[in-house]
TrEMBL record:
It comes from the Bacteria. Coiled coil: none annotated. This is aldehyde dehydrogenase (NAD(+)). Homotetramer. Signal peptide: none annotated. The keyword Phosphoprotein does not apply. Belongs to the aldehyde dehydrogenase family. Gene3D superfamilies: Aldehyde Dehydrogenase, Chain A, domain 1, Aldehyde Dehydrogenase, Chain A, domain 2. It is an enzyme of class 1 (oxidoreductase). The active site is at E265. Pfam families: Aldedh. Its EC number is 1.2.1.3.
Length: 512
C-alpha cells in the first residue's frame, strides 16, 4: 500500500534535480539536458533528472583523484569496514530500495528485493576479501634473493551500468574496487537514475559518518555521451562497462586507443540443451523461468532451447501449457509472473524481432503481441512467445532483449553443443541431463564455450561467489566472486637482494 512518493521520501530522494555527486556533495554548476524518468509499470512520470555538464564532470574527476590519494593508503581491512557498513545500511533499506528497483525498472518485487540482497551479499564477500588480497612468493634462482608479488590499487574505477540490473552491477564492481583501494565513479543507465541516486545517498552517508573523502563514491548522470567521455578519459584507470555488445565495441575501441584497462559485460544468447535423459519437470521450470523472468531482460535470459528429437514434441506441448498459465501484469503484485519491458522502444524491438522471425520461416507455437487495457496503460506489457526456428536464422543469432524463446531440434549431443556454441555471444549456457557422460562432455574443453555453464539449472540467476562474465561478443570480462578482484588491482613483482653480491639473472657476467 506504500506509495512511490513515500518510498522516494524514505530513500531521501527529493524533488530537487541532481546531475552528479561526489559523496553528499551535489554538483549542478552547468546542468546538462533534463530527462524525465517514467515507470514502465504504469507509465507515470516519477521525476526528472539533469545530465552532468562538462564542469560537473571535471569536478567529479578532481574529487575522485584527491580521494584516491588518501584511500590507497588506508589498510585494506579498514576499507572493508566501510563496505561492511554499506552492506548493513543496504539491509536497513532493502525493502524500499527493492520497491524502487521494481517500480523504476519493471522487474517483479521479489526480483527487486533479490537484487538488493545481491548487493548485500557482495558487500559481505568484499569484507572477507579485504583480508585476503594475497600475492604469491616465488623462489629466486639467485642465492639470498627473494621474489614476491604485491597487488596495488589502480586509481579511479569507472562503472557504466545497464538498466536491467540498475543497482546490483554497481555493487559487484564498487564493493570489490573499494576494498582493493580504488575510488569509483558510477554512470548508471539513463533509464534508471533514481535507484542510482538512492544508492549514492546511502554510500555518501556512510562516508560522511566515517569522515572519509567524498570522492570515494561518485555518481554521474547522463546518457551514452557521458559513457563515451569516461571511455576516452585517461583519468579512468579501469572502466567496467555493462550493456549491449554495440556499446562494448565502442568502449573497447576508445579504451583500447589509450591502452587503458576495461571489463566488458555484454549481451548473451543463452541456450539450454535438453537431452532425452533430462528430468523434464526440472527442465520445464528452468526453461520457463529463464525465458520469461524479468520479461526476458536478463543478460542470462534463456533465448534458445536445444531439444532432443525424441522428447521434442512432448516438451513443446508442456511448454505451451505452461505459457498458457503465465500471469502478465503489475510486477509489484506478487501474483504476476511477467512484468513490462523497460520502454516503448523495447516493445518495438520485440515486435520487429517477431516479424523478422516469421519472415525467416519461424513458426510461432505461442503467439506474441502487445497487451492493451487499463492494467497495461504504460504500453510496455508484451506476451512471452515461442517460435520453432533454426539456429542459423539471423534473428536467432542476435540477442533480442524481450521474452522470445526459440525452439531448436537436435539428434546427437555433439550437434547440440555445436548449435549452442554457434552464435557470436558466449555468456551463459546449461544442459539438463541425469547422464554423467553428457554432463561432463558439456563442461569439458570440447563442450560449452561460454563463461557460465550449468548442469540441471537454467541459464539465468548467478551467485556472487563465482566470477561472472562471458566470452566472445559477451565481452570477456569477469566480475564479482572468485579471483575477479585481480582485475581491479595492478600486480607488482618485487625482487629483493639481501646478499652483498650482485649476481645477474640467467647467469650473465658483467664486470667493470
Ligand atoms: P546499453 O548498451 O544501451 O546501455 C548500457 C549503458 O551503456 C548505459 O549506461 C548507456 O548510457 C551506456 N552507453 C551506451 N552506449 C555507450 C557508448 N558508446 N559508450 C559508453 N557508454 C555507452 O544497454 P541496456 O539496454 O541498458 O542494457 C541491456 C544490455 O545489457 C543487454 O545487451 C544485456 O545483455 C546487457 N547486460 C549484460 C550484462 C552482463 O553482465 N553481461 C548484465 C546486464 C545487462
Amino acid at each position: 500500500s506504500q506509495t512511490i512518493a513515500d518510498t522516494l521520501q524514505k530513500l531521501n530522494i527529493s524533488a530537487e534535480n541532481q546531475a552528479a555527486s561526489s559523496g553528499q556533495n551535489w554538483f549542478s554548476t552547468d546542468k546538462g539536458a533534463l530527462r524525465d524518468v517514467f515507470s514502465p509499470v504504469d507509465g507515470a512520470k516519477i521525476a526528472s533528472v539533469y545530465a552532468a555538464g562538462p564542469a560537473d564532470y571535471d569536478a567529479i574527476i578532481a574529487q575522485a583523484k584527491e580521494a584516491f590519494l588518501y584511500w590507497r593508503n588506508v589498510p585494506a581491512p579498514q576499507r572493508g569496514n566501510f563496505v561492511r557498513k554499506l552492506g548493513n545500511a543496504l539491509r536497513k533499506h532493502k525493502s524500499d530500495l527493492g520497491r524502487l528497483v521494481s517500480y523504476e525498472m519493471g522487474k517483479s518485487l521479489q526480483e527487486g528485493l533479490g537484487e538488493v540482497q545481491e548487493m548485500i551479499d557482495i558487500c559481505d564477500f568484499a569484507v572477507g576479501l579485504s583480508r585476503q588480497l594475497y600475492g604469491l612468493s616465488m623462489h629466486s634462482e639467485r642465492a639470498q634473493h627473494r621474489m614476491m608479488e604485491q597487488w596495488h590499487p589502480l586509481g579511479i574505477v569507472g562503472i557504466i551500468s545497464a538498466f536491467n540490473f540498475p543497482v546490483a552491477v554497481w555493487s559487484w564492481n564498487a564493493a570489490i574496487a573499494w576494498v582493493c583501494g580504488n575510488v569509483c565513479i558510477w554512470k548508471p543507465s539513463e533509464k534508471t537514475p533514481l535507484t542510482a541516486i538512492a544508492c549514492q545517498k546511502i554510500a555518501a552517508q556512510i562516508l560522511a559518518e566515517g569522515n572519509l573523502p567524498e570522492g570515494i563514491s561518485s555518481l554521474i548522470l547522463g546518457d551514452a555521451s557521458i559513457g563515451k567521455q569516461l571511455a576516452n578519459d585517461p583519468n579512468i584507470n579501469l572502466l567496467s562497462a555493462t550493456g549491449s555488445t554495440k556499446m562494448g565495441k565502442s568502449v573497447a575501441a576508445a579504451v583500447g586507443a589509450r591502452l587503458g584497462k576495461h571489463i566488458l559485460e555484454l549481451g548473451g544468447n543463452n541456450a539450454i540443451i535438453i537431452t532425452p535423459e533430462a528430468d523434464l519437470n526440472l527442465a520445464l521450470m528452468g526453461a520457463v523461468f529463464g525465458a520469461v523472468g524479468t520479461a526476458g531482460q536478463r543478460c542470462t535470459s534463456t533465448r534458445r532451447l536445444i531439444i532432443h528429437e525424441d522428447i521434442y514434441e512432448e516438451f513443446k506441448a508442456r511448454l505451451i501449457k505452461a505459457y498458457g498459465q503465465l500471469k502478465i501484469g503489475n510486477p509489484l503484485n506478487a501474483e504476476n509472473h511477467v512484468g513490462p519491458l523497460i520502454d516503448k522502444d523495447a516493445v518495438q524491438n520485440y515486435l520487429q524481432a517477431i516479424a523478422r522471425c516469421k519472415a525467416e520461416g519461424g513458426n510461432f507455437v505461442v503467439e506474441g503481441g502487445v497487451l492493451e487495457g487499463a492494467e497495461y496503460a504504460s504500453g510496455c506489457y508484451v506476451k512471452p512467445c515461442i517460435a520453432e526456428a533454426k539456429n542459423e536464422m539471423c534473428v536467432v543469432q542476435e540477442e533480442t532483449f524481450a521474452p522470445i524463446l526459440y525452439l531448436l531440434k537436435y539428434s546427437d549431443l555433439s550437434e547440440a553443443i555445436a548449435m549452442q556454441n554457434g552464435v557470436p555471444q558466449g555468456l551463459s549456457s546449461a544442459i539438463m541431463t541425469n547422464n554423467l557422460r553428457e554432463a561432463e562432455l558439456f563442461l569439458s574443453a570440447s563442450g560449452s564455450d561460454c563463461g557460465i555453464a550449468n548442469v540441471n539449472i537454467g541459464t539465468s540467476g548467478a551467485e556472487i561467489g563465482g566470477a561472472f562474465g562471458g566470452e566472445k561478443e559477451s565481452g570477456g570480462g569477469r566480475e564479482s566472486g572468485s579471483d575477479a578482484w585481480k582485475a581491479y588491482m595492478r600486480r607488482q613483482t618485487n625482487t629483493i637482494n639481501y646478499s652483498s653480491d650482485l649476481p645477474l639473472a640467467q647467469g650473465i657476467v658483467f664486470s667493470v
